[in-house]
Amino acid sequence: xxxxxxxxxxxxxxxxxxxxxxxxxxxxxxxxxxxxxxxxxxxxxxxxxxxxxxxxxxxxxxxxxxxxxxxxxxxxxxxxxxxxxxxxxxxxxxxxxxxxxxxxxxxxxxxxxxxxxxxxxxxxxxxxxxxxxxxxxxxxxxxxxxxxxxxxxxxxxxxxxxxxxxxxxxxxxxxxxxxxxxxxxxxxxxxxxxxxxxxxxxxxxxxxxxxxxxxxxxxxxxxxxxxxxxxxxxxxxxxxxxxxxxxxxxxxxxxxxxxxxxxxxxxxxxxxxxxxxxxxxxxxxxxxxxxxxxxxxxxxxxxxxxxxxxxxxxxxxxxxxxxxxxxxxxxxxxxxxxxxxxxxxxxxxxxxxxxxxxxxxxxxx
Length: 365
Known about the structure:
With 365 residues, the chain is an alpha+beta fold. It is built from nine helices and 13 strands.
């Protein structure tokens, strides 16, 4: 993630901000260039942006920004679609007449925009249902009903998420029940996007055999593997080769869990680099070798550079979160086997930047 600053007063901004708290300017995000910009209202109702390179164009707020308050992205004033690039990918939203659903929807959209930012920053085209009506990426954010329980998952480009995941209490209850170390809305979306990109990049890609050697035989029956996992639990030695216990369920889940961790890694290392963060992890008086981190400012093409920054970064941030009584920021230990899988995902993404496969009709995952 980049650092953003207000073009009017130079105050630091968060990706999710809709207003500069220092000078009061409203803000909007231009997805084509990953720019968060101060905006000013024109007499004709359009918005002028203050970011350089865009001042000759006029914009309007995404309708989900202007009317619903769940977005902060802009749309060109001559675009016939009222929705921004992110919001047009949401096919179904929860019933907003129900208490709490609007806030849950907002949290889902915030996480989705961060997902899309990360995917496009990696050079991965994000194909929606307008471009590919069969297998393009689309989202449904749904609530349980007395008649049906919503299961979070992916099928043919459709990512469905139960909005209960946006409720911190419900999410923590689920995390504890399932004995998970980490559970967030963004983590869910990154995981499910991994299934989508398996279909796009791996299923008929040149590295399928290599992926199967590391992740396992994905042709094994998924339903049987899932039942076995929930009956017997994860493999007892899962931390020797998997990023999480859940990754042991089936090679598809191993890929999706590792994919999500890779997206975590890249986003965190990039923001650390843009913050100018540099640190060492040698305790005072220790004779251990100095492990220093100077994070790259952009997602590195070298996996070794990313990993060299990631390991001390996670140690430092875990120390910080423990110091104020929170659980570890990154509660995982990456084994050599897990690192090898992360490295392969890095290579698959690098390949995709060069050659993007034509849309394929994928099987349900």
